[in-house]
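Propose amino acids for all 308 sites.
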């Protein structure tokens, strides 16, 4: 099986060096510009997608990426119900089995640390497609690729991360990636019930990344280059009353958009519920659909890097 030795598994954002990120982004640019050059590069290889949690973008963009590179795909949605997990099989046993059938496994799971557990027993690369409230490193790759595309720079960017930061694996992974760049300034905008976790803040302190915690979105909007909205994730709350108390707390509508810089960028990993009004979808600063499309190219670049 064709596997690179330098990047065997993709588990968390911390494992990416700035050089590797720049290589991946350059490759994703090439793929976007000249997709025909990459047709057939992964012919004969098989990707397994094991999704224990729902997904539209991650699952389908990984499948499209593998198919466009000439590889094949197999997998299971709702693996908790439709795989032998329903009969009590452990994640580790499932991975041992599937790694005998596939050349790479894309895994989404509800438990933080699941991808790391899978990597410990897998014979083939594991790609973390989201592990509960832990990390979603390939989302962070496409997010950073989008920032670079929209602003023509990453060093020096000022980013507001808004919403469910405690449970938000996309914001965690993106903050870890941004910490590799220079002069980054972050604002964490969240109610206290879902504020950014201490482990991430300790990492930013260690890497001298400036951040401000606030609940006041209106005050932050004119200060930043990127507004990164996230959904309050109902499925992560054990106490429904806490969810009810904070749902819908932040919303970007035309009035809020008027406070964002002329060359600012509005992003969201999607799916959205009500945190971005559809009335701003046509604003040129609304980048979330372009962002989702970038997922295809960055995942093609990643699969190519791992498997060719
Ligand atoms: N952004 C993201 O991970 O979307 P899906 O849950 O649809 O994969």
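Proposal:
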């Amino acid at each position: 099986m064709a596997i690179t030795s330098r990047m065997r598994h993709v588990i968390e954002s911390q494992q990416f060096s700035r050089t590797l990120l720049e290589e991946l982004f350059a490759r994703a640019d090439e793929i976007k510009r000249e997709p025909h050059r990459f047709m057939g590069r992964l012919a004969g290889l098989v990707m397994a997608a094991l999704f224990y949690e729902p997904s539209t973008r991650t699952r389908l963009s990984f499948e499209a990426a593998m198919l466009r590179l000439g590889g094949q795909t197999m997998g299971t949605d709702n693996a908790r119900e439709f795989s032998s997990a329903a009969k009590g099989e452990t994640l580790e046993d499932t991975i041992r089995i599937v790694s005998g059938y596939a050349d790479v496994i894309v895994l989404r799971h509800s438990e933080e640390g699941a991808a790391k557990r899978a990597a410990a027993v897998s014979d083939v690369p594991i790609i973390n497609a989201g592990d509960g409230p832990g990390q979603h490193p390939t989302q962070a790759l496409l997010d950073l690729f989008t920032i670079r595309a929209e602003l023509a720079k990453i060093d020096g960017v000022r980013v507001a991360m808004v919403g469910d930061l405690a449970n938000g694996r996309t914001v965690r992974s993106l903050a870890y990636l941004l910490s590799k760049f220079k002069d980054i300034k972050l604002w964490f905008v969240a109610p206290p019930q879902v504020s950014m976790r201490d482990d991430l803040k300790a990492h930013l302190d260690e890497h001298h990344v400036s951040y401000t915690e606030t609940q006041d979105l209106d005050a932050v909007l004119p200060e930043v280059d990127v507004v990164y909205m996230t959904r309050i994730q109902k499925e992560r709350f054990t106490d429904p009353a806490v969810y009810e108390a904070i749902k819908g707390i932040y919303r970007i509508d035309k009035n809020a958009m008027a406070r964002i810089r002329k060359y600012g960028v509005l992003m969201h990993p999607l799916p959205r519920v009500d945190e971005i009004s559809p009335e701003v979808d046509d604003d040129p600063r609304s980048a979330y659909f372009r962002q989702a499309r970038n997922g295809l190219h960055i995942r093609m670049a990643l699969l190519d890097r791992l498997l060719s």
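The first strand starts at residue 46 and ends at 51. DSSP finds twelve helices and nine strands in the chain.
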